[in-house]
Amino acid sequence: MTSLDLVNLFPADLQSLGFTTSFSCASEKLVHAQWFPSDAQVRDLALEALQVWLNKHDNLSDVEMQKLWKALFYYIWMADKETEIEKAIARVVGLSDIAGMPFIRGLFKCMVREWHGIDRLRIDKYYLLINEALDKSLDIILSSGSKEQFAETLSEFVAILDEEVFSKSGKEGKGLTLHLLEKWTDKVLKTLLDRRPKATTEILAIVIDPLFDLLSSTDVSSPKKASQVLDSVLSSWIKSGEGNAETEIRPPRAVLLFAVRTKLFNMASDKDAPENSREMLYALWNKSKRSCDLLAPEETKTHPTRPLPDPSSKASQKKRKLEAKKKRKQQRQKNGTQQRKDVENEGGQ
After folding, report:
1. pLDDT-derived band of residue 253, with 50, 70 and 90 as boundaries?
2. N or C: more exposed end of the chain, with fewer CB within 10 A?
3. Are 273 and 216 spatial neighbours (Cβ–Cβ below 8 Å)?
């Protein structure tokens, strides 16, 4: 990290606290208690100095970004009054104007890491931080110039959430994943579609993509929530085609819809699909089939998909029972083999 002399940037009272050498040193000191006195003015002065520094050094490494976010996390932690909280969050999120999407990535990586340490008295302020970060990210995406730049920035944002949050939904990212999915349709998808209606197909293709991985998660709550989000998207597809034979869905969006239908079919028919996800996948496949029948009936005839087995049918239930019985038998055999090995090892001793 390039060292920067911050003596001239900081007022005397901040210099006395030791924030005088480099960003790396400053960010590490910022996370300690003495950096967060009860005086909000002192904290704000530190943030202003940091903003000046970032204007000259916006290309931070991942480690440096995490140090920065550790400091900013506690900057928000120490804000208690409602107006003070809103002001602090607005200032912190505003730093993304300087550092861009890497700053947003650092935010979500930090939140996943710190999530389980947030107490119930402070959790609301971090929900507010996440919501503000979503709004800011959407502003950055929508300010993109060309259609290609828009799609690229949106893909980058969705990839950030997928890599830093959704991929960890079964572990430390579960709470944050559920909150983001709550906002996925109304805040993310609706805002994008309202502001960029001509890019509907691109938006849908990018925004629904991470939902498929969540649908196949072994966790219980994340697939259920992802299923509700995708169900909402399919419902809007159906609604857009009802009573409108000339709907825009036909060439580009019909291709996407059939791709969704095929993806759901392959996931639901996969023998390794988690049982808690299979019925949800089957229901979504049925809904996507209805969408295809309604919005592109001529395509449905030329691209038939064999029906999935009904998970509620007697044949499917019998098959699942046999598979479960087979697994139990294999487990018993494995346990017996291990016990024999343990006995032989004890005899050899």
Report:
1. low
2. C
3. yes
Dihedral sign for Cα atoms in the order 48, 51, 55, 57: positive
Residue found under tokens 């947030």: 118
Contact between residue 2 and residue 53 where contact means Cβ atoms under 8 Å apart: no
d(CA 308, CA 268): 8
Nearest CA-CA partner of 307 in 274, 275, 342, 265: 265
pTM of the model: 0.71
In whole angstroms, give the CA distance from residue 216 to residue 206: 18
Taking the C-alpha atoms of residue 240 and residue 320, their distance in angstroms, rounded to an integer, is 38
Q: What's the pLDDT at 321?
A: 63
In 3D space, the residue among 25, 24, 20, 23 whose CA is nearest the CA of residue 9 turns out to be 20
294, 308 in Cβ contact below 8 A?
no
Secondary element (H or E) of residue 56: helix 40-56
- Confidence at residue 47, expressed as pLDDT on a 0 to 100 scale: 84
Residue 31: is its pLDDT beyond 60?
Answer: no
CA distance 34 to 125: 22
As a whole number of angstroms, the distance between CA 160 and CA 157 comes to: 5
